[in-house]
Specification:
Blueprint: H1 2-7, E1 12-16, E2 19-23, E3 47-48, E4 62-67, H2 72-75, E5 82-87, E6 93-97, E7 100-104, E8 112-115, H3 122-136, H4 153-167, H5 175-203, E9 205-209
Antiparallel strand pairs: 1-2, 1-3, 2-9, 4-5, 4-8, 5-6, 6-7
The protein binds zinc ion.
């Protein structure tokens, strides 16, 4: 069950008693008032919450993040070390560690993803795996060059992204800019989702004061 591994159990939200109530399955009765929960009114209908996690082996040409140890939902505490990589067009995730370039066929099943290719960029898509292999062959990524703080998985992924941007005629992104624009918004969403998911796992449901109707 791939979807279950990427997001574990899917969260749903329904409204009752002026609360947004999150759970894995809508209960027959509202946990606050005990009344039957039906979708009699549209606003009471349960809505499924998108998981911020994807199976990295099914994401083509993406920048991927996951905790170095364990998984986001089970182990991430907001400060844990993260490991990043780049996916190929066929499910292999390339990353750089103290052992050199790694090509993983598994282990990235619960990742945060930043897609790197605009839709319909066929030329780039066709070249992607070759770019990636050529890039990995550089002496820069030999194991002994690895340095935990200055020459690490992030250096590798960003250098690859910049090599692709250069080939595409665009300017490079620095680490700060890439992180601010593409990574932090997603890790913030992931952190909120993890908190919610764990609360529901622990208590069966989680409620917050109802937000004004979304437009
Ligand atoms: Zn109620």
């Amino acid at each position: 069950m791939q979807a279950t591994e990427a997001g574990r159990r899917r969260l749903v939200r329904f409204h009752h008693c002026r609360q947004d109530i999150y759970c894995f399955e809508v209960p027959p009765q509202c946990p606050f008032c005990g009344q039957g929960v039906g979708a009699r009114r549209l606003e009471e209908a349960a809505l499924s919450i998108d998981s911020p996690f994807v199976d990295g082996h099914r994401e083509k040409c993406s920048f991927l993040l996951k905790p170095t140890q364990g998984t986001f939902l089970r182990d991430y505490d907001g400060h844990s070390d993260l490991h990043v990589g780049i996916s190929s067009t066929h499910g292999t995730v390339y990353s750089y560690t103290a052992l050199g370039v790694q090509r993983d066929g598994e282990g990235w099943e619960q990742s945060v993803s930043v897609p790197l290719l605009p839709p319909h960029a066929w030329a780039l898509l066709n070249q992607w795996d070759k770019y990636l292999e050529d890039f990995c062959a550089a002496a820069t990524w030999l194991p002994h060059r690895y340095e935990e703080n200055l020459h690490n998985c992030y250096t590798f992924a960003l250098a690859f992204i910049n090599a692709v941007l250069r080939a595409d005629g665009s300017g490079p992104l620095d680490k700060h800019e890439f992180t601010e624009r593409f990574v932090l918004p997603r890790t913030r969403t992931a952190s909120k989702y993890i908190t919610l998911h764990r609360a529901v796992e622990a208590h069966g449901f989680h409620a917050t004061a109802m937000q004004p109707a979304e437009s």
